[in-house]
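Last lecture ended with a question: if I hand you only a sequence, what can you say about the shape of the protein? Today we answer it with a concrete record. The protein is Large ribosomal subunit protein uL29m. Below, first the input exactly as provided, then the predicted structure, then a couple of comments.
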Amino acid sequence: MFLARAFRQTFFAAAAARSKHYSTTAGAVRNPLPEFFEADRDNETPVVYGRSWKASELRLKSWDDLHKLWYVLLKEKNMLMTQRQMLQAQNLRFPNPERLPKVRKSMCRIKHVLTERAIEEPDARRSAEMKKMINGL
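The predicted structure:
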C-alpha cells in the first residue's frame, strides 16, 4: 500500500505542476485527476461501505436524481477501476473487490428503472427519445 500511496502522491504532484502552466481567462481550472483516486485514509480504522441501491428505492427518485446518481456511480466505478489497475500493475491486492459489483448492480438497476419509466410513457415519441437516451448511458 505504501507504493500505491507514493505513486499516487508523485502522480498528483506531476499533474499539479503541469496544470499550473496552463491558464485561462475564466480563472483557476479545477484538476479532475484526483477524482480517479480514493482519498487518503489511515489504514488503522476500517472503512465501511454501503450496499447497492434497490430498485424499489430507485423508483421513488426523480428522473434528475437518477441521472445525478448515475454519474456519481460512474465516477465511483472509474475510481475503483483505476485503483484496481494501478494496484495490479504493482502486484498489490485490490483492498475491497466487493465494491465494484455493488456499483455495477446499482447502475444496472438505475437503467432498469429508467427503462420501466420509458415503457410506461404514453407519448410514443417521448418514449423513444427516453429509450435512446437510456441506451446511451
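Comments.
1. The helical segments are 2-20, 55-58, 63-89, 99-120, 124-135.
2. Residues 10-23 have pLDDT under 50 and may be disordered.
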